[in-house]
Amino acid sequence: MKILGKILLWFALAILNALLTWAAIVLFTNDSVELGIIMIIIIFFIDFAVINPKGYPYRYTIPALSLLLILTVYPIFYTLKIAFTNYGTGHLFTRNQVVEQLMNTYVTDEDSQPYSYSVYVHMEDFAPTEEFVLIFTDGEKSFLAEKPKIISVDRDGNTTRSIAEYKEITNGNVVIGDGQYEIVYSIQNEDEIMAVEGNVNGNSHTYQYFFSFDDPDTLSNQRMFMSNIYLKYLDSAELTNPERSLVRFGRVYGFRKLVDARKKYRIDREMVEENGKILERTVLINNSTGIKLQEEDGTFFEITPQGQKIDVGGYRGYVGLRNFEKMFTDSRFTGPFIKILIWTFVWAILSVLFSFVIGLGFALMLNDSKFKGRNIYRTLLLIPWAVPAFISVLVWRNGFFNETYGIINKIILGQWFGMDAVRWLGDAFMAKVSVLIVNIWLGFPYMMMVCLGALQSIPGNLYEAASIDGATKIRKFSSITMPLLMTSVAPLLIGSFAFNFNNFTNIYLLTRGGPAMSDSLTNAGSTDILISYTYKLAFQSERGQDFGYASAIALFIFIIVAGISFFQFKFAGTFEEVNRG
Amino acid sequence: MKKLLLVTALVLLVSFTAFSAEAGKLTVWCSEKQVEILQELGNDFESMYGIPVDVQEMGFDQIKTKFLQAAPVGEGPDIIVTAHDQIGELVASGLLLPMDFLTLSDRKEFTDTAISAFEYNGKLYGLPYGVEAIALFYNKDYLEEAPETFEELAEIAAEYTDDEFRGFVYDAPNFYFTAPLLFANGGYVFKQTEQGLDPTDIGLNNEGAVKGAEFLKSLYDMGVMKPGDNSQIADGLFKDGMAMAIINGPWAIEGYKQAGIDYGIAPIPSIDGNECRPFTGVQGFLINSQSPNTLFAIDFLANFINTTDVMYRLFQADPRPPARLDVAEMAKDNADVYAFFESALTGIPMPNIPAMAAVWGAMGDALNQIVNGELEPKEALDQAVAKIEAALNE
Fold this sequence. Notes:
A: three-stranded antiparallel β-sheet, 17 helices, 49% helix, B: D-Maltodextrin-Binding Protein, domain 2, six-stranded mixed β-sheet, four-stranded mixed β-sheet
């Protein structure tokens, strides 16, 4: 049995290794190098923990450690990486990708006529082969193109570029390089081409008329043409002729007609001096104007002869500390920053403080064994925690705080006390009070549960001893309950503080950060905390999304929160020392 | 524990292969109601060309976000169905293919609003199929006919409004709904120029816009509108039969029908005799510029989707006002939809340039300040425009 178990274990390990290695390879080929490295670390760690007897204790930390690496360490690293780039709307691709895209830009003159084309296929045993030629015509002249040669394919083996030469048909003959083609016309109709006799280096082929979009009689061959010939050879084909323009399929007629086209840009190399070093760099030149594309801030600009600058494509690149500079010089960020930072602290501290005090109060009450119906009360008090915040916050917003229809204004203040309506969500101060009330309502049950658990773990004989010593209830609470409670609850309070510091959901559901600060030129609101403000800056900015800038701000906030947490842990640590003493 | 890891590894792997764009296969992302028709057309497409079409259902609001994540890494679909105001960001990132196959005469088959909504930097980036704009719903139990002017509406509403019942209600702090009031006397968001919208010329605090905002404030001063009105409250009141009239969009029809309200739909009443033109939103088909199948996608849109018959079937599956004029004519017997079609026809396309993102927040703040009486309309609008300018000049 033991051996069987071992075999199974090794088998599982082998499969896991294979899968993770495969995952790592996929990640590497997908340019996710960092995640790939993490995968490899995980593989080594798992193998070490399983194979090496010394690693045995670590076995149980495998899931936690793997998830920690993937879900925590990697995102932090990724954020750090993004913070130094201009990644965002308009800067999603790498420079090479943009150059490639621009190199694949074609222009077609508006007055150029499209060509109808027909396909002539070589048959073997009455079945079509992949050997074919194209004949296309603009109504006056006819041209013949050879089967395009595949120049490049993508990872999945699909053709991304193919090239063939074409020539005009003169007197029923075409010569392209080594190939000689003779056109066979129909006897009844001299314009109708029945077949093409081809001879390349002595190999002769007969190409039979196979398919044309303009000929409904060939419709039965359409499917075969599209999937066997078109997709592989023609979709990205460039048909060239040294004396005439390039011919290809374009955006206007799709694959039904060929059109004249020319490449909009050509590539060139140029020496540039950067930081004292001389580097060779690819530059793009507009073929029709001959003007070089300018590169600025990770964007290619085309300069028109009139001197206008047109954005033709941005790429993702390293921008150094620019996002951080921008953060500290951006008046939209620094202007309300101090106000928002202070409010974020007030919000987090008061949320934790009040929900702790209220939760502790209820916990003390429920912990009293003389108290009847404890279970019912406990269940009821848990409700705010159990109901999803998405629902209860909406109820608070419209049912309680609404200026005209909310219960507080309409019934309690209006009908019972005859007071004026309070602008709960419309006034800067009251909105702060409102979000705090809701957050405390949502947060106290958690504190209550935590305290209840902690209270039950305090040994009863301590209280007995205190009673014998003649301690008052208050003294018992301050000298026994609080210190013992704090040892287990203090770390949770820190966690709760950090959570509320970034409690985006409640703010956003209740006020969306509003009402607006009336004295600033930003979209900062009076109840905006750092994280909701970051969201506004990053995702509602004028250029769409700016991930680089958002990452810089996120890092800044991370440093603040991490710093605060660090000091809190220190603080909590001293608490523990006091207890032991 | 190993199972967990296995699952994690598998999930990771699958997520890297799930949506990957394949050459020789068309993938379409659309929302629920179009799936069936598009899949049928896709099957026709496959039998014609041997190229399979995979239609994947996705929530309408998710399509753009997911597309923005997937397309740059070559894993996006070939075609998406989404709203026109998203295109600025997508075009700026180089993710959309211009619809060059729609010739000038093809474009004449659509309403002008629908075409101009999808135009960006002088190029057309979408094949429109549906339009939407807001209009005035009125409860026929209280009003036989909708008033033609806002002044008239305010007067009647003031008469009937008390603690419980409301003459007129709508989500006023939302710029989308209040825009028609600001536009009536000459307000505009960005100046329309020959090169497109000019984000440096903002007309949200000009004389006309201020006039509209003052009119809105007068509604609050009269007690017709009340602070705290928002979309949920307005909708709830109208559904309960506790409101005489509301401004809302075609998406609300279903709910009002179910609530058993005998409603009528009319254009938004005029202010000072000037038409209140709403924002028009347009839904359409877009092609991913990174797709390896752009020519197939073009053929699918040009020859399979853009026909009177298919557009009419799309309308039947999801009765929103059609963007094609001939289809709108066919849809005339659906009075509700036609009323909204007419409203959309007069509407102003919601700006599709990314700069619009800065407008929503700033204008929402300003309208809240006006509605709450915190600032005078002129002050609030001046501040909003200053905010937008600050955001754009950053």
